[in-house]
Amino acid sequence: MPRDGSNVYSLPEAPFQINTVASPSSMNNNLSDLAAAMTDSVCRSTETTTFSRTLLDDASASVARATLVIPVEMIERKTASASSVVDFVLPAGYTSFEVRFERLRLSADNTPLWFRASTNSGVSYLAGTEYAWAATYPDATAVAVGGNANGAAQAQITGAADNTATDVSLAGVIHFDVGSATIRAQGVGQTVCFDAAAGVMLPFNVGFSVAAGAAVNALRIMPASGNIASGTITLYGHR
Fold it and tell me: What is the Rg, in whole angstroms, of the alpha carbon atoms belonging to the chain?
């Protein structure tokens, strides 16, 4: 496949002349070369998934990613529908992750969301004494209070959200570092919901860690009781 420094393709055979017989071997060589060149290219009109993977996920594409300056990439978005848990397997090649919540409603009233982690790609999730968390948040009268737990079976990552139509969790983000065999996985974030009865916004600022004993490679979001009735949870990766 002859290509010049600007990646412009040229046929391998010399141009055919008018009123001359085209050699079968030359024609076949041109066609075979064109087929190989097309196979080695990416279709821009229909194969966008393949194009994205080539550009963003291929290990040899680090130069392209750096040139385009793509620091954060959406990995997966899940829509909850009476979901008892929402799980994400964390792909390799990222330094840290973000989980973003949009318009979540829970089936149970006054219920927080929990975070659990896995080191076996989601086959099972740690639920012993691996978690520690601390948070500051206002109560229903907008007075600042705090909460924490050490040696817990999960980390609490939101306040106790009401489940009426006007009390959805309007926004939330958790930034998470997967840790290693010697360094605890850890996260920090803020979520917010509106308490219609008290008429106040309830932000929840939290930091937490997981003594996983290995790098975390899957995570679980779940309510303390009931299920996530509706809303979306999106996983982003930081290169």
Answer: 26
Helix (H) or strand (E) holding 83: strand 72-83
Using CA atoms, how far apart are residues 48 and 90, in angstroms rounded to an integer? 22
| Region of poorest pLDDT, from 17-26, 47-56, 128-137, 226-235 | 47-56
In the beta sheet, which residues pair with residue 111?
Answer: 161
pLDDT tens sequence across 16-29: 888 888 788 878 88
Residue 116: beta bridge partners? 220
Please give the single-letter amino acid code of residue 42. V
Question: What are the DSSP calls for 130-142, one per residue?
Answer: -EEEEEEEE-TTS
| Residues whose CB falls within 8 Å of the CB of residue 90, separated by 6 or more in sequence, listed in order | 97, 178, 216, 217, 218, 219, 235, 237
Tokens of 126: 């740690």
* Whether 156 contacts 112, CB under 8 Å: yes
CA distance 36 to 59: 23
Question: Using an 8 Å Cβ cutoff, are 99 and 219 in contact?
Answer: yes
Length of the chain: 239
At residue 48, the pLDDT reads 46
Q: How many helices (H) and strands (E) does the chain have?
A: 3, 12
